[in-house]
Design brief:
The protein is 22% helix and 3% strand. The chain is mainly alpha-helical. Strand 1, helix 1 and strand 2 form a beta-alpha-beta unit. The N terminus is likely disordered.
Length: 120
């Protein structure tokens, strides 16, 4: 059964609901995904988020209490950031999540979206 907040957009951590299990794909408006609303970062700046992403900090999902952020786990793998349990480790996915801090910054600070060109 899906979590009710999963399909809504602009869910803040104040609206988060208890997770039934750890999800493996980012929530609909995860800031680490290419489809994220530009600038939707809560009360932290782009610089703050990049610093957290490149540290060994535990980051909870903003929509599911008790679950780690799946988008951040994918972003970390995309950037070759090594983390170990208990931090969430997921496979890379450069189409879904940003590949580096420059893409993340361009999207959230300047509203620029890096569109991947499909291979023919």
């Amino acid at each position: 059964m899906k979590n009710p907040s999963w399909d809504r957009l602009l869910v803040s951590s104040e609206d988060a609901e208890a997770a039934k299990s750890q999800h493996k794909t980012p929530c609909r408006d995860c800031p680490w995904t290419r489809k994220a609303l530009s600038g939707w970062l809560g009360n932290l700046s782009v610089t703050d988020w990049v610093g957290i992403a490149h540290s060994n900090s535990h980051v909870e999902c903003h929509t599911l209490l008790g679950a780690q952020c799946a988008g951040l786990a994918i972003y970390r793998r995309n950037t070759c950031k090594r983390v170990e349990a208990p931090l969430l480790v997921l496979p890379s996915d450069h189409e879904m999540c940003f590949s580096n801090q420059m893409e993340f910054t361009a999207h959230h600070k300047f509203g620029l979206t890096n569109v991947l060109v499909e291979k023919e």
